[in-house]
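Posting this for the archive.
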Amino acid sequence: MKTAVVTGAAGAIGSAICAQLLTRGYQVLAVDVDAAGLDRLGPQVIPVCTDLTAPDFYEHVVDAVQAAGGRCELLVNNVGIVLAGPIEAADPEIIRREQQINLQAPILLTRALLPLLKQNRGQVVSVASLASMLPLAESPGYCASKAGLRAFMLALSLREKETGVRISLVHPGAVDTPMLRHEAVTGGSALNFLSRPLSPDTVATAVVGNLDRPHLETSLPRHDGWLVKLVGLTPGFLQRIRPLLEITAQSGLEKYRRDNGIPSLPR
């Protein structure tokens, strides 16, 4: 039985990834700080309740992998949080936590599990974001962390022939999760709603799809990915067209707020 480690497993996307991996016969180690959320995943997964901001969290994960048989064929770096709003008004501790969870934790866990992944010619799939390539004024720390994750994974992919470990990145746009609803409440970017928010299952399918047909990078939706990469070539151009993009996206944001019973923010 192949073994997969999934971080952020108790969240909407993480739980969908775990469910799909279970149907493929994987032994799933579900990593999250939310003990109650891990319980809801059911007895088929192996819960690993740990705080990814703890200095030695990765040791707990490695110990759990060893206790489960000592194999690891797949690591899914899925965990992520977002801090929305002006950076000058943000709590420094929350800024630090955002970077620890979104960037440092995937780096440290990938490093810790890489020897086992190399033994089994395994795979690392990291859930980044289109925001890793398209900066959003309302969530600069999130964009920075996901851009850093993308750079780390791309750098690691340059060693695939040496390590035998395949590297994949999945870049979703907005996903209909509690995190997106939090952004809608706290003043997240309207650009999240240029397209209709994705379902968690759509992202999970893209992640698990890399087991059959691995891609270095997958953007969701694909057409948004091409737009983001095009705009990313000329950052100054984004400053000029951002007002137009936000006007276009505003109707999608207002619809999302109405559908979810979220009052509009004062302008």
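The radius of gyration is 18 Å. Residues 92-119 form the longest helix (28 residues).
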